[in-house]
Amino acid sequence: MNVDLARAQWFKSSRSGGAKECVEVAFLDGGHVGVRDSKNPTGPALVFSAAEWDAFTGGTPDGRSDRS
């Protein structure tokens, strides 16, 4: 998937404590969602389809994303 991130508007969660150990998210053209490491904003970013992002965020509160 090739998505242009040049105009992405990155943001951190409102629950972020302001430390640098955060991820940033950007809602992109075509319904895609970008995720990057806030410590390395010029580094690589992951890009998810809307369905992938919905599955991830929908499963997080009930623990489906836990690795234990």
Key terms:
three-stranded antiparallel sheet, 15% helix, DUF397, DUF397 domain-containing protein, 68 residues, alpha+beta
Instruction: List the total number of helices.
Output: 1
What topology, given as strand order, has the largest sheet?
1-2-3
**Uncertain spans, ≥5 residues at pLDDT below 50?**
none
- What fraction of the residues are assigned to beta strands by DSSP? 15-25%
Q: What is the total tally of β strands?
A: 3
What is the average per-residue confidence, as pLDDT, rounded to a whole number?
Answer: 83
Structural class: alpha+beta
Secondary-structure element string? EEEH
Alpha carbon gap, first and last residue: 30 Å
Main beta sheet strand tally, sense and closure: 3 strands, antiparallel
Shape: globular
Radius of gyration, in Å, reads 13 Å
* Helix percentage: 10-25%
Pfam families: DUF397
Organism: Nocardia fusca
Protein name: DUF397 domain-containing protein
Domain DUF397: 8-59
